[in-house]
Amino acid sequence: MSHTQDTTNGPVAASDAATSPAPVDAAEAEQRRKAVRSRTGKARFAGFLEAYALLVLLGVIALFFCFWSETSSTFPTVANMRILLASQAVIGVISLGALLPLLCQEFDLSVGNIAGLSAIMVAASVSSNGSVLVAVALALAIGLVVGGANALIVTRLHVNGVITTLGMSTILAGIILQRTGGLAPASDIPQAMTNFGTGLVAGVPVIFVTLLVIAAITYFVLNHTSLGRQIYAVGSNMEAAKLVGLRTDGLRAATFVVGALLCALGGLLYVSRAGGASPNVGVTFLLPAFAAAFLSAASVRPGRFNVWGTIIAVYFLAVLNNGLSLAGVEPYVNDYVNGGALIAGVALASVLYRRRTT
Amino acid sequence: MNEQTATEPTRAEQARKVALAVQDVSKTYGATRALDGVSLEVTTGAIHGLMGGNGSGKSTLIKMLAGVVTPDEGKLALKGDWIDARSHTPARAKAFGLHFVHQQNSTFPDLTVAENLALGRGFESTAVRSINWSAQKARARQVLDRFEIDVAADTHLVRLSPAAQMMVAIARALQDQDDTDERGVLVLDEPTASLPKHEVDVLLTALRRYAADGQTIIYVSHRLEEVTAITDEVTVLRNGNVASRLIGTEISHDTLVAGITGSTSGTHAGGLRRANDAIASRVHLSHAAGFRETALTLSRRTASGLEDESLLLRAGEIVGIAGLLGSGRSRLLKQIFGAVPRDDFEVTVRSGTVPSSDMRTAMKRGVAFVPENRLREAALPELSIAENLSITSLSEHSRAGWIRPSRERKAANRLIQEFGVRAPSTIAPLTALSGGNQQKVILARWLQRRPDVLLLDEPTQGVDIGARNEIHELVRAAASAGTAVLVVSSDFGELAALAQRAVVISGGEIVDSVGGPLTEDILNDIVYAQEKAL
Q: Do residue A9 and residue B32 have CB atoms under 8 angstroms apart?
């Protein structure tokens, strides 16, 4: 409205050319810099705590399970650690797939079933012709097609992302059911592939190393390239991003496609580790992957979804669940803990974010 | 007061009655006296125009009537009972029957007419407290009949013409008044700002009918033509004072302009305008002689090809766009930049033509755009100051797509120093800054590209006075470095302070130009004169 500026009318405007402060003089600037330095010194520790609270908590919980009598003999063993690292690698890759669209404030609810379909198709393909190369190509093709479809529907037809991917996820579930009849197909996975899924390098599961490599690549692209910066800008304010000349639709589409590719890759890794695929594995991926992606905003870069926060969150939830299972608690306790951790974590992130920005 | 003596005979009986009176109301914001002892009387059953330029105190007065702003002193009479204006509240305004309908109206486009009417007062319900839709519709039809609005009760509001939507909003505000003398006052704040020309007449006809029916209306508008057409009495504010009170035949374009701008006579405005035309054409000539490089031209596209330039900016020049609310001033900037499509004119800058709807090419060609609404259209709130700065220049800070952090940081430090941004550090999020400092960051974001053309929309809206002056200095510095600046501001004082000359826009078209030196009064004169010419 035009008359919102009663406080800045003519006479005042005319007189203030004289009072206009020149760029702050040097002494004042120096003083300010000093003040800032001491403030950052104090703030640094708090900032560290904020950023790594989840990691610290992860350590505390792990230590607890190491010394708690119920789990002290089973939790801190090399075998258990390997299982823990390897079993969560698949979820880790899929949660990165969920993270990418989330950075643009888009939800991809089809992440679980993309991985599920990829796993089923890869298992079937590799069992029938024994070619790992064909299986890899197939997984990538699935990711590309499903992600591309999601991207086109969201950016061209302007259908809400939640609706689009919910529909897509349901269709994928239908395809999985049609292909399998609801039963785990008999599979004959080549040795080369299962070796990859269960092998160790320098004592660490190969598949966990794979996760770290994928996470590192994603991290570098998101935080050290122009493309990643643009994705964060779209997530921060789409209208503003458009008005500084970013291709917002293209960027959103890219996160859907690359996210789906990661999920399909997750399906492939699952087959190599589990030596087969069952029709309902996709469903079990969805929630943990999303929980981790959301929890990422509570660590490393508080208030912002980020790669290492996601990986920490995956293992935070995994250690919690693993320890409780080893202690022999009823399975429903895990559900309480997972749900509670997710809500508490995201609430924490939003509090941190507001404190940081106001 | 002399209002009562001069009113038409038909209103003679009502003229004795005053529906609403305000006495000696003052309000000070910091160093600014927004209202300085303003008094006003609104005759029952009259349409009372309230006019004034930006900063006249008009909106403060309206907010005070609504009970949203508490004045420092003054009295207020509603239906004859005097109260201390400081004790006025929104609840009291409602109890006294003061009904406000604003330009950005509060109707719901996706709901039906009946639902919109019910949302103002509650739904008709059945015995089990569910909504009784048939009773609801019947009541809506009754209201529509009473206000003579020719629409069906179950039509969705979005399907109605803008004038009909406004009338539904008015009917909603007034529906609970009974037809006796207990009527309140309807306050319409710029009701026609977003209405197309032919729709305005529909609304004005309806308002005249309501007034003839005995409804008291306060009509706030920038539009002289409408005010002269429908008001019975007018109060004009200027600089927080009542500049003039006009009744009946005294209300004319010239008397209103004289009140708004403070010039002694209406003809003076005409003379001024002629003088300015002469200056404007001289300015144009000096350009033609090639004193400075052309930075931006807008050419109208007609059936027979491209017509003359309707706007021409030279390098280093600051040109204002003056226009009233709803004149299309912001839209013009967005069209030049390519954020809104255009098909009736062409934009040329030094490095070539700027295609329609292609912001990326516009940027490449050296056009920069600082939008009006910082929060919605410019800020990347969660990103750091450095990231907010570098977003328009990522290729400068990266090699083969990889951002070089040290370069980015250095550039950010240099920019916040150069632009006087008071920031704890460049890695703090943008939202950690005050509004003025955020605006400097947005300005720096664009000026680091050394654009040929800078489009500024309300560059200091919601910014404190100190930051405002600093921003003006930064814009001037950019201009003297060779950038041509096109600035839109609803605050003509700001335009006068910044721009060397201005163009006047109305109905989305450039209709006039004013040479310098600019003053707030000259701009008011020309803009309002243009309103009459249309």
A: yes
